[in-house]
Amino acid sequence: MTFYKVIADEDGRDVCVLVNATRLYIGEHTYIYLDDVFKDENLQDDINELGATFDTYYNLLVNEFDSVAMNVDGYPGIFYLLTELDKTNDSYVAGYFYGINEFSKKEYWYSNEKEILFLTTFGYDTNPNWVENTKSTMAHELQHLINFTNRVP
Fold first, then answer.
1. Please, how many CA atoms are within 13 Å of residue 146, restricted to the half-sphere of its CB?
2. Which of 31, 96, 126, 138 has its CA 20 to 30 A from that of 80?
3. pLDDT tens digit string along 16-41?
């Protein structure tokens, strides 16, 4: 499947980049895709853990924050794209929600037309806490998606 992600170019401007990705997890509320750049990495166990944890806690998160009020894609869950995001020597983007994806391609050509959240692959091979950090980022970004879908329409 292909997705658009937003990253900063050399001048710090946001640009859309097309990403080819493969679905490695499907659950009740979770669809996790891995950027094909990382297809040779052994991330399946980590992705299974992320997906299973999120499926377990999805209803608690939705009950705490609110429901996802928009459903642009007709799927009952959230898409996650694990991919390389912006990073510098000192910091990195752990994840993000981009509201444009809640609208049609007619309005924004680079919309993914999905409830989708983006998560970094940075540190998967060096940080022993990468899975736990990513779980926190999943919940944090879901809160942004929920707030957006309940306030914008």
1. 16
2. 126
3. 999 999 999 999 999 999 999 998 78
d(CA 131, CA 124): 8
CA-closest candidate to residue 65, choices 152, 153, 148: 148
Phi-psi region of 127 (alpha: psi -120 to 50; beta: other; left: phi over 0): beta
Q: How far is CA 142 from CA 11, 24, 40, 128, in A?
A: 29, 20, 28, 23
For the ranges 38-42, 83-87, 114-118, the one whose mean pLDDT is highest: 114-118
As a whole-number percent, the residues of the chain with pLDDT over 70 amount to 99
pLDDT digits 0-9 by tens, 87-111: 877 789 999 999 999 999 999 999 9
- Alpha-carbon distances, residue 78 vs 19, 62, 90 (angstroms): 18, 12, 30
30-41: burial string, b at 16+ Cβ within 10 Å, e else: bbbbbbeebeee
